[in-house]
Amino acid sequence: MQNNYRAVIIDKMIDLITDKLNLTVTTPVRQEYNHCISDVAWNEILMELGDFTHHHHVTRLEHCLHVSYLSFVICKRLGLDYQSAARGGLLHDFYFYNSRTTKPEQGIHCFRHPGIALENAEKHFPLNKVERDIIIKHMWPVTLTPPRYRESYVVTAIDKYCANRELALGSAVLRPAV
What we know:
It is built from 8 helices and 2 strands; from the N terminus they run αααββααααα. It has helices at residues 2-20, 27-41, 44-47, 60-78, 82-91, 109-124, 129-137, 150-169, and strands at 53-55, 58-59. It has a two-stranded antiparallel ribbon with strand order 1-2. The radius of gyration is 15 Å and the shape is globular. The protein has one domain (2-169): Hypothetical protein af1432 (Orthogonal Bundle). It is mostly helical.
């Protein structure tokens, strides 16, 4: 029963990004992506990101899924660690406050939230060194330390790309990205 529930949750998450962001996902790619993110996507706390607006009409959960899926596709095509890219992309903005109205205890949001996201992710999930690097370095070059892994560069670039797509979208439907 619990595995069926997991599958439904993950399918609904993928439907969120494919419908709203007009992405094309074939069944084999969907299954492989499901496999990569299943342990993270199943956790109920991840769904709480859907309560926070991130880029006007896009929730933080939708943004993280957008970054995760596109990073997965690109890293897979490049022969990189696409599972770490998918998981790191899904957790790169794993913080639970409204960045427009609430400020971190120390510092400015754009500099501080990668550390907060990493702390939160490490509390809930086992992470490898690539996933940690993706989360903590995704704001480069705003933050000064560059990524260490190729997957981190991919997720960092895709995060900027997705943010721009989401901001340009307004309330319209996006043209296909993949």
